[in-house]
Design goal:
disordered N terminus; 16 helices; alpha/beta; six-stranded mixed sheet; 511 residues; four-stranded parallel sheet
Length: 511
Amino acid sequence: MKQKILEHLSLIAIALAVMLTSAVFVKIIENTTFSTTDSLENASSTPESTPTATSESTPTATSEITPTITQENTPDASLVEDRLSSGEKILVKQEISDTADGEFSSAKQRGVEAMAGGNYKQAIAEFEAAIQKSPNAPETLIYLNNAKAADLEQFATSEAFTIAVVVPIGNNPNGALEMLRGVAQAQYEANEAQGMNQAPIKVIIANDDDDPTIAQQIAKNLVNNPKILGVIGHFSSGATLSAGREYNAGELVAISPNSTDFQLSDFSRYVFRTVPSDRVATKSLAQYMLTKLKKQKAAVFFNSQSTYSESLKMSFVEEVIANGGQVDQDLEFDMSAPDFSANRSVEQAVAKGAQVLMLAANTTMLDKTLLIIQANNSRLNLLGSDDVYTSKILADGGKAAVGLVVPVAWHIDSHLESDFARKSQELWQSRVNWRSAMSYDATQALITAIRGNPTRSGIQQMLSSSTFSATGASGDIRFLPSGDRSNSSIQLVEVRPQDGSDKSYNFVPIR
């Protein structure tokens, strides 16, 4: 009896061992499968959430891009809607510099409340009162234009044509306001020129904080809104590349006034830009360095986490070397590196015989750029990116920034007699910069295409046509098959003392 019990126990032990071994193998297989799946998902989502520049000189992205939307990047509708407004809520919390102007803020708030309640005549009165207090308020002007458009819709034969503008309110409010000035002026002029029976232009403002992931989510929302006929934006190249995949898949036109990365050339049939690419800008900088400054060797400061900065760095190095100059690999300094030191990097550049410092910075690196400028202390010539074109560089860089040369798409001092320059100063009671001019051009192009063929496909066909032309701040607007502007040009500007002062500085065109 005892022997039988032992035999049964042995059989049970063997069965348990087999079951345990099987379970272990199953778990191993499951883990291997899950790991592989995770890797594939990560590999496919990475370029959509944070695109990075590659070492290839010719981008290969085409209109065939079809993004894979996973649960991770599917937008929360309520969160995205909080970032959109056509006048029913305020997105720019500090629109004017005089924060003590309570009358402006109160009138604007009352206008927003009236807009949300559908009382458009009251909204018009309140927004007009706000602008009387502070004319240089582009978000408020867009809301006023929208209130007038909504009020007119009851008399028009068709609904207003709706477009969107995506700006970086959260992380770059000044850049956002610069873009909004151009869009607001183009909308204002278009609507004022239309009769009672013609459809006005309505603008939805969206805030993507210049974040590629948020930009993609907002783009998906705009694509899914059938009323939106086109988009102005985005600000940085990284945000535009990320959002552009959604615009391409959804066949919605987007025109960027600010994104210069060469990867956007031939990126999509639906993505255009009014600003020159990095290749145009760096060609001008390289020529200036080699022929005007007669310098041969440069050190480059860049941000490897920014597609724009990477693109600018690569284009500049290629141009300098192609034209007989020199940029040694150990003179390429990544400002995003944990151990980066402005003082140490500048001293290394000086010790290795660099004659020029190229500051290929994006907006998140302006503080480190200022440290480099101060560390240089006017020893080596300075070149910079268009993102360095800011009042912060002038105010905080001071005397050490004098001589810094930057490429921009437009400068008001070179176009003082143009209609845009004159009308913009009348409208805003202030001077505008190249970002406003390029945003105006992007909006003018989009509105012209809408007036010609007000469907998404029709707008794309209009912009792509060799016969298309619109009038902008910087002349005629036409596009190449690549989506780039066909007649783009660069104006080099230099930091100089203002009116002989040693405390006030300005960017002045190099003639």
